Amino acid sequence: MANVRKPLFCLALIVSFISPARAIDRDHYLELRKKMAERVAQKDWQGARELLTEMGRELPGPTPHFMLTVASIEARLGHTAEALQWLKKYTATELTYDVAEDDDLKGLLAGATGQKIAAQMKERSSPVTNTEFVCTLPQTDIMPEDIAYLRSGGAKTAGNFFVTSIQHHTIYRILLPKPGSKECAMQELPLSAEAKRWPTLALSADPTRKALWATASVMPGFSGFSKEDEGKALLLEVDPESGKVLHSFDPGTTGPAVLGDMCVTEDGTVYVTDSIGGGVYRLRGDVQTAKLEKIAGGLFSPQTPVLARDRKRLFVADYTMGVAVIDLARSNPAAKVNYLPHPDSVAVVGLDGMYLSGDSLIGIQNGTEPVRILRLFLNQAQTKITGTRVIEQSIGHDPTHAVAVDGWFYVSANVGWNKVDDSGKLKPGEKFTAPVLVRFPAKSSGK
After folding, report:
1. Could you tell me the pLDDT band of residue 408, with boundaries at 50, 70 and 90?
2. Which of 26, 89, 36, 57 is nearest to 324 (CA)?
């Protein structure tokens, strides 16, 4: 008879509803993951199980990937009941997984419990549509990574949308379609050749300075860059009319950096994240004398930062872990990173764009299956995630980021990341199709 003793973290998770917030040591966790890979390569399943136990103690909460990994190891050890229990936990997140194509797990489908789990996962993949179409963009190959909106005057005046372009290394002004048309107009800002050297990624409007903030980074593996440019990244302040780069800031990292996401607060403070270096940076005060300072490190793949309502904390979508929390009064790049606690049934990984909307976070979850747009409900103090609701879940939308404008969230979608390889080139047989803007109401109709 197989050993049926469950790992300690397994017992704890079964009785827990909301995972406690914990800090995580990135270097230690990566070392455990490396050892885990070695055990798997050696087919030492018991040793892998023991390492998973230790990794589970380090995690702020069990991620969907962690749940599947535990299920696989338990299945390898012949612990069918435990493996099914972890698959049930994965299914509760409302994500899907093709168990039938997994050599470790497909044997679990033989029983009634496994068949029920597979049926539930299939049901979870059904489309959910609560967005409405706005327009297509006229140029198919721009890959509009981020979107911003800047008013031309006061709070009640009209303004323009802007998007960055991965493929063309520039910024486009987007004009909404005239009545009867389904296509937006697009005008490229006249950026200097120096500003267009690398792919443009993050984009945010700065209403205080009436400017745009954008990032440009040499994407790892992307082709077409000189050896001297490898690993470089810049934060740029851009005039939205002339395209002139007003100021430029270098994160000053010792290794490669990708400044991939950012936000600008009402007072003009800029927060920007380095998705491969794991750092979070801040720029505040007079841009003539300000410096891009590192305020946090140790994240795994930080994406969009969001200022909490109390303005004392910064939420950061950490792609593989969850929603990180940075105490701005005690910001310290060497400190361990804390994460928002959440129910085990709420998947908070794979978040790219993330935005505060009342007592909820809007998340563009493009790193999961299925891809979703979520509303993550927060408690009143905004110290934990209490639940979630799917806003959009449809095949092929490929959303990345959003911007709030006049009671709506506008989302850049069908961006094309799923059509390019690691070098940024189209995959064989693929072609770009028109990017789209969709929108949904910012106000929630309740839980």
Report:
1. very high
2. 26
